[in-house]
Each structure stands twice: as structure tokens, then as C-alpha cells.
Amino acid sequence: MAEVNKSVATNRIKLGSILIVLFLLLYIPSLIFWVYGNNVSTDIVRMGDIQDSVNMQAIIVREEILLNSPIGGKCIKEINEGEKVKANDRIATVLNSSSEKLLVDLKAIDLKIIEAQKKRNENLELFSDDLKKLENEIEENLKEIIRFGNSNELLKASQIKKQVDGLIQKKATIAGSLSTPDAYIQSLIDEKNKLQRSINSNTKDIKSSKSGIVSYAIDGYEDFLTIDSISELSVKDIESIEERGIQKDIEEIGVEAGKPFAKVITDVEYFLLMSIDTKLAKEYKVDDPIKIKLNEFGKIITGDVFYRSNNMGGESILCVKVSNALSETAALRVLNIDLIKNQYSGLKVPLKSLANIDMKSNTAEICLVKANRARYVKVEVVGKNEEFAIIKNIDETKGYSVSLYSSYIVNPINIEEGQTIN
């Protein structure tokens, strides 16, 4: 009996041990998954574009004509900043201090004329009613004359005719006074014309001899930064240029005699000058196409290399000719740009998501999530910048491969092959 009990106890111990082992086999992976896998950040592969670029300052050089005001005083703009103007079109009108006072007087006279004409029109309505009454009365008297003439009552006809003559004279007098302005209005008109002649003699129209884009931002570099001087500039010259072209409200503060207050950009093409590392400059040749991002506007424009200087102490001047965004940049001299060396499109992932990067072979590994397990896949690095990379599969026929919307681990540090991932 004791042996039977001992056998039963032994079987129970074995069954309990088996259950404990099965519990641990199921619980421990879940525990590891909960502790480690739940804290791993993942994302999906998306299509995108990246630029391999260098950020720098660029100086704008343009064909510019300065416009001076022959007189000082109030300025009235007719063309706004960045707008186009035709050759010989008026850009602005300048009035000296005398004209400003005369303009006030002119406005006052205009108001007087308007008021006088308003009163005269009211009188015209009254006189118009009188004229209608006279016309009706004349018509009735004429009928009486005809009736008395037919009955040979010539004396009565002659008397009524005298009344008609008086009515016609009265009508003519009223009609004549309506057809000509009264003396007061005429005196105001004469005074207005006199003031207008005085204003015209103290007013100057500012016109451009050429067509182009108008800018009121004068910075003093217009005669220094010219297309002819590009090859003569040094790196020091470029680095000394600063943004100082402030758009003044000339309609508020006025203009000074003999000083420039506006300019016309006469060419659709302009030039971007930049001081860059000579090694980078040597990657470009004259007439090479180039892409540039204007960071102020978030706009990418294209151009051609116009000039590249020799080495100047490790730096060189690169000049790019462009023709886009002329109006937007009219008031600027210095631009913050990205010089785009390369541009790539394809499967885009953060650079930090790649492991074992080998730039000699342009390969790396990305850690994909397949069935909740970490799987490293070797990929080709098509291109990269400081933040992102464009990748593609090396061989899609072997094992796992990366594709659009594949799930991957954002930061694969300390992630092992086959590790459970949430």
C-alpha cells in the first residue's frame, strides 16, 4: 500500500514539473516580449525625395538702374515693389513742399465746386417746372390766336400775340441762364485751373528709360556689385556683403533731391555669388546645370554655372546664373540657400535606422519587423544626407526584402536578429 502511495506521489510530482516547465516556456517569452519588445519604436517605409545639399549665403548681382529724384518732397508711387514697368512709363510722381500746400487748397476748391453745382442743380429742377408751365401757356395762347384769326377778330388776336411774345422772351431768359454756369462756379473753376498749373510746375514725373522690375530697396551696392565686376571680386569682398536694403515707406517720409529712391532691374537673369570650399567648387564646371533651394521662399530653382574662381586660401567663388524668382528677390541682396549636390527619389528611411553602413560598397542593413520578429535585410544605399537615406533591395529573391510600407525598427541599436518585437 505504501508503495502505491509513493508511486502516486511520484507521478504527481512529475506532472507538476511538466506543467511548470510548460508554464515557463509560455510565460518567459511573453515576459521578454513585454519588457523589451513593447518599447521598440517602429515605422513603415515610405516613398520620398531627399537632397544632398550644402547650406550657405549667396549674394545677388543684377543689372540695375538707379532712379534719382530731381526735387525733394512728397512721393506718390504708381508701381509697387516687385512689379513690372514698361519703358518710359511713370513709376512715381514727386511733389515739392509748395505743391503739397497747393494740393490741400485744390481739394478745398473741388469741394466748393461740388457744393455749388449741387445747389445749382436744385435750382435747375425748379426752373424746369417754370419752363414747362410757360410752354403750356404759350401753346394755349397760340390756339387762341388761331381761333380769333379764323373769326376775323384781329384786335383780340393781336393782343394775345403780344402776350405770347412776352412769354417767349421770358422762356428764353430762363433757358439762357440754365445753359451757362453762374459767375460763382466759373470763378471757382478759374481758380482751380490756376492752382493746377502751379502744381504742375512744382511736380516731377519719374520714369524709367528701360522696362524691368521695380524695387525701392536701395542698399548702396548697386554700383559695386555689377556683372562686369564678378570676376574681379575676392572671397573677402563676398563675405563682407551684408543685407542692408530696407524698403522705406517713401510715400510717408518723402524723397530727397538728387538721391536715388528706386531702381529698375532690367534683365530677367541675375547671378548668385557664393564663397565655398575649393574642393566642392572643383566639382562644378562652367555651364554645368545646378539646382538651388531658396530657403526664404521654400522654392527650388535651376541655373547654370557662370563663373568659378581659382583657389583663394582654400575658398573659391562660384557664380550661378538663374532666371527664376526675380520679383520675389527684387528687394533682397543676401539669400540663405541650399546648394543641391544630388537629389534622390525612392524608398525613404531615417539614416539612424540603418546599421552596418559601408560607404565603399554603398550598402547597409535595415531591421524589418516580420511576424513580430526582428529580421535584418541588406540593402543598397542609393543616396543620403545628414538625416535620411534612399534605399533599394540588393536581391529580392533571397530571404526577406524591403518594400513600400514594410515595417522597420526606427533605432536598431541593441536589437538582435530574431528578437520579438511588438
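Second entry:
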Amino acid sequence: MLPSAISAPNGAVIVHSNDEILHVTDAAISLFNTDSRESLRGTSIRDYVATSDYEALADQFNRIEAGSTSALGLTITITDSTGYSREVVTLSSPVKWDGQDHIQTLCIDVDSKLAASELVTNTMETSPIGISIADAQRDDLPLIYVNDGFVEITGYSREEVLGRNCRFLQGDNTRPEPVAKIRSAIKNEEAVTVELRNYRKDGSMFWNRLSIQPVTSDEGDVTHFLGYQEDISAQKTYEQEQALFEMQADAVEKSLFITDAVGRIEYVNTQFEQTTGYSADEVLGQTPRILKSGAQDEAFYQELWETITAGEVWEATITNERKSGERYTVEQKIVPVVDDTGEITHFVSIEDDVTEQAFTEEVLAVMSRVLRHNVRNSVNAIQGYAELLEEKMEDPNDRAVLQVIQSQAKNLETISQRSQDIRELFRRRHEHHTLKVGTIVGFVEQQRVRHPEAQIDLSMEVADDREIQNGSLLQIAIDEALENAVVHSDHERPHVAVTVTEAATADRLCIEIADDGPGIPDQEWDVIFDGQETQLAHGTGIGLWMMYWTITALGGTIERSDNEPRGCVITYHIPLGTSNEEEV
């Protein structure tokens, strides 16, 4: 059964989805010059609409399907089955068809002579948007027809507007630019669409999306101007609120991004771009997995997703990865956003970069514990052996005892110097400049001079001009690794191999330092990656911490593996900058 909304006589009406025609009236069969409804069913309106017009028409269909408007009008060119093109005015609105939500589009042929009574016949009277007709052949273009939608939008009765020019809707705050555009289009007998401030009878302002279309006679003379008035105040308010939100969001010194209900990113603020290194264009439509560093396992993300999809707020401290590959730590809060029905529509994520804070706190805490432990042990040893020396001053072993005392004193001196190095390192860590990869050769050569008893080989497989941000920190990590490999070796001539390569899948530098010594005990290594010292787990030195801290400060990672047939391999992975060749 034909719905009452489209049963008006003489109406060329099409019922359709966005892509498929479902039903047409007899007038539509005539308009498209086909033999039957069956020849139109299953085809797409796109097949008959001029390419230049379809994007605007499809946009109207999308807005109607989304429920953001109840009716929209447009002037388009269609081509019938014989190839004949004509201009029509379309009026589209939602309709129920076979129990489903679809769209009905009324097509009015404006190439034929068009009288006001004919327009009324074509169901314009019941349209929820404002429709008006002005007489183009009379002075000052008086209105000769307005529909109920026009009366409802403006608050004026028909008696108050017929015979007047439509400019009475303008007010003091109506901008001159859209008015000038309207006048120019009318003068040139052209179609025009503008958005402008208009005023109702009670003085209240509304935003009017006004579309004007000239209607011609058989002789080609413009006889009328057909106008569509759509109240878009709610849309304008939304746009203004969105602009205000974006301005405020950009002023926040925290990363903020918004996703839809399935996790696709729809908005990021300026701080997000600065923190992550990604532009908005690079992440819109992506998911937050683009920031995934691998520091959290899948169970972590599963718990996150289950929490927020249940409508609960999620809070955690996590490690993300910037576009450059550098890792950073954030305190994350994700808040679900629900609509009036309680359905989740979006998620808002706020992330506070606490990399500096977390890193500094870790350094200070570990330094305090390690130094207390090591200094205390060294002092105890000195005191104990000093007592022995005092009691056995004439003993032949005095020299050996004295050597032990001297050794422990030297340990104290070394620890003190290391603590000073660390303080200086992190006090000035932001002052370090970029470093050419080729400088690594000099670092290794210095260690060869310092340890002539060792064989230290170097293999460079990366262009010398590649750059490392804050690269001067790298020397500390290399020095510590080589020092550890040589000093703790149980060979008369320790052998250490340094290999520098570039990762195949990303701009990251890989530095492997392989030795043939006894390796690093698991207990020492585990303390590093637990991030804290405890009563039961102490690192006996701070060399490993120096390696870990400097590589972390470079935004990189450190790994340990076994060497073959014996020994240990330490691997540093750090982000590379842009080479000079790429910059050109």
C-alpha cells in the first residue's frame, strides 16, 4: 500500500534507500521516461543524477538518515532513459516503507511552466521546511506563496507576508555578505544557497539556510523564484559549541582524544599532536593502538575495553610510543559518553605525560637505595679491616689487609664519582644535542685506549650521518657496557664485539655489545626491569642502572641475551633522526 505521505496526485515521488530505488509513482515513471516501475526498481538515483549534483544530494540523504533534519530541498539535473536532461527541484524527507526507515524524494520539473497552485498540489504545503515563491516579474519580487513550514519557522502569518519582499526577515545583525550574494544571484537569474541570521516575528534570531532557485517559462524567461528556508539554529549552536570546545581543549596541557563507540579516533587536541608526534590527519579514523608500545600485554587492554564498554571510568598509568619510536609514560583516564537512551556513543581519553616525573622518581629512589646499601657495606668492611690492622700491626699479613682497605676505599670513591655522574647526567639531560652515528667509532676507540688488555672489535653497518637525538647520552651507555664486559671478564684477554646496525622495519638504531665473560646474573638484571630495589633484591653496582637510564632517556629499550658459545649480548634499540640526505 502506498503511504499517505506520498499519495499526492501529480507528484513524481521516489521511495529509496541511499543506493536503491524501492518504489516510484506514475509521475516518476513519466519523468524518467521509462515503461514501468520494474525498470526503475533496484536501480540507483545516482544513475540518473548529474555527477556534479550527486555529492550534494547524497549529503542530504545522509543527513536525513542520521535524523538531523526532517526535510531538505535541492535543485539538480537529471537525465532520463532517452538521454534527455532536465532541471528538477527535489524535496526529500524520511518515510516508513515496508516497516523500514527509508527516504522519499519529490521531484518537481522546473523546466515546465510552474504556477503556485501546481507547487501546492505537489505536497509542498505539508513540507516541514519553509517553502516560498516570489514573483520575478513584479517590482521588488513580492511573495505570492508560503507554506505552513515557512509560517512555523518565521512566526508570521500568510496575511502578514504575502505581497512583501522576503527581506523583512533580516535584522541589524544580519551580515551583509550573504545578502549581497543573494542579490547578485537574483540579478543574474542564478541559483544560490547561503546561511544567514534571520529574525522571527517575536524578534528571536534563527539561522536560516536559504536556497533560491529561478523558475523559467517555456520561452526561457524567469517567472518565479522558489525559496527553501531551513532552520539550522541547532546545527549552528552545535558548531559554535564545538569550536568553543576545541579552543578549550587546545588550551589544555594534556593529550586529549575522542573515539567513537568502536574505538576509532574522531578528534585529537593540539597537545596530543605535540606529545605523540602524529598529526590529526594521521590518526583520525585509526584506533589508539597506533600508540601501543608493547609494554602492556593483551590482558591489560582486554580489561581496559571491558571496563569502558561497561560504562565505567578507566584510570591507569601506561607506557605509550611516539611516532618516533620513543616511549613515554602517561596517566590515562578514559570516560564513556552516553546519549539520552543510555547508549555509549563515544569515549574521551585524557592522558597526562608523566615521563619526566616517573623517570626522575625512579632514578632518585634507586640511587638512594643502592648508595645506602653499597656505602654501608664498604664502610663496614673498612672498619672491620681497620680493627684487624690495629690489633695485628706487627703481623706479616698487614700488607694484605692494607690492600683490602685500600680496595674498599677505592670502591667508595668510585661509587661517589658515579653518583656525581648520574646527578650531572639528569640535571643536564635536556641540554644534550644530536649526535652523528659515526661518533660511536670514537667512543669505542676511547675504551680501547683505556683497556689495552682487551680486544674490542667494531662493525659499523649504518650511514655515519644518521642522527641520534640527545645522542651524547649514548656514550655513557656504551662506556658502561664495555667497562662491564672487560672488568668482569675471567679471561686474560677479554674479547668484546660491538655491532651497529639499523632495524629493517623502522628508523631505529641497534647496538649489540657481545662479550665472552661470565655474563650478568639474573638477579642483577631482574632488579633493573622491576624498576626498584627491595630488601631481598639488591643490585651490587650502578653500572647496569646507568645503561638502563641513559637508553631510556633516549627513548629506547635494552635487551640481554646469551652469547655463543659463552658470554652475554647487550642490545640497545634507540630511535634515529632524519639523515641529511632525507632532509634535502
